[in-house]
Amino acid sequence: xxxxETMAADDKTLDLLRTVEARRRGAxxxxxxxxxxxxxxxxxxxxxxxxxxxxxDGEERAALLAWGGRPVR
Length: 73
Hints:
This protein is mostly helical. The chain is 64% helix and 0% strand. The chain starts with a helix and ends in a 5-residue tail after the last helix. The model has no long low-confidence stretch (mean pLDDT 76).
């Protein structure tokens, strides 16, 4: 039997995932959550190496920040 703390953590995780999905659906542009950054960062760099995505330089990130009103990684 699972403890109440584990079930409460699972409920919070599900709520977070529902919120993320709702915002993803409403977003005009693609975005990614940067939690647990290292595995995500490594996957992004692998995609960039394969030329499947393009990494933004500092100037482009600054423009995106101004346009989106929030930090861009």
